[in-house]
From TrEMBL:
Name of one Pfam family that matches: CsbD
Superkingdom of source: Bacteria
Name of the featured protein: CsbD family protein
Positions of the UniProt region annotated as Disordered: 1-57
Database matches in SUPFAM superfamilies: Hypothetical protein YjbJ
Similarity section: Belongs to the UPF0337 (CsbD) family.
Organism name: Streptomyces decoyicus
Residues annotated as domain CsbD-like: 5-57
Length: 57
């Protein structure tokens, strides 16, 4: 996995988790949903890069 894409995936995951937790803490469902979406986007980006690496070998 390229280091740049791996860093983007991790950043999205962490930012999503933080936003989701903040939304849950204040009772804001929209913020919680947006955080969950960001986290999922990061998970998908990471999975895509892992799949690309698997086919390289």
């Amino acid at each position: 996995m390229s280091a740049d894409e791996k860093a983007k995936a991790k950043t999205e995951q962490v930012a999503g988790k933080a936003e989701k937790a903040a939304g849950r803490a204040v009772g804001n469902e929209r913020m919680e949903a947006e955080g969950s979406a960001k986290e999922s986007k990061g998970d998908l980006r990471g999975a895509k890069e892992k799949a690309k690496d698997a086919f390289k070998d």
